[in-house]
């Protein structure tokens, strides 16, 4: 396995310095070539933690399950408080561009790179899915929109809205604002979806009491209005932060659920369907 850890300078020398030590870690098979249909996906994984930390259960266990499904995985430990917008957004864009530049080394196609986030990491993934063409990326990093655009987005019980269903602590840590200023209203992601968003896979549980599942539903409706291809898996039971919903990610049986654990294999199959639908 190609298990490598890259720091800020290796990911992108132009990245602004932050207070958080960031890293990008690869979980990739060596010398595997392409899958039968000539395509292998890569995925950037963004653990959750309310922009206060990046949790462990949504990092390596998720990466290893994607790897088992034939997807080359990369975990980004991005900036959290006291760093604020747009620090983590720029790091996510830079990480995706780094993987795209090195796609051949990892046996993936440069036009088959997804971003996958959990909770606040789901918000960050949604930011890149919505705002990959934001001029700040070129201004700060010298990267083009095409270099950083994700080819698919995977959002797991994501923070989405700054409105009625907001997880307000996440938005406050990200922006320092109790209510979003007009220039940051785009971070309430149901308001900034466009026809340029990539195909998106979403999942949530009806009993999530930390980030209301209405966040996921609002985003799904916004994608639907813009004609963006999407798949939504909505499970009847499960707490927040289930990760893979298996024993590998959570020792507490309360975070394990046989039905919710189907999300990741379903997601891998969805990626392959998107590959077929968009095949050259």
Automatic annotation (TrEMBL):
<dbReference type="InterPro" id="IPR029058">
    <property type="entry name" value="AB_hydrolase_fold"/>
</dbReference>
<dbReference type="Pfam" id="PF20434">
    <property type="entry name" value="BD-FAE"/>
</dbReference>
<feature type="domain" description="BD-FAE-like">
    <location>
        <begin position="43"/>
        <end position="217"/>
    </location>
</feature>
<dbReference type="GO" id="GO:0016787">
    <property type="term" value="F:hydrolase activity"/>
</dbReference>
<dbReference type="InterPro" id="IPR050300">
    <property type="entry name" value="GDXG_lipolytic_enzyme"/>
</dbReference>
<keyword id="KW-0378">Hydrolase</keyword>
<dbReference type="InterPro" id="IPR049492">
    <property type="entry name" value="BD-FAE-like_dom"/>
</dbReference>
<protein>
    <recommendedName>
        <fullName>BD-FAE-like domain-containing protein</fullName>
    </recommendedName>
</protein>
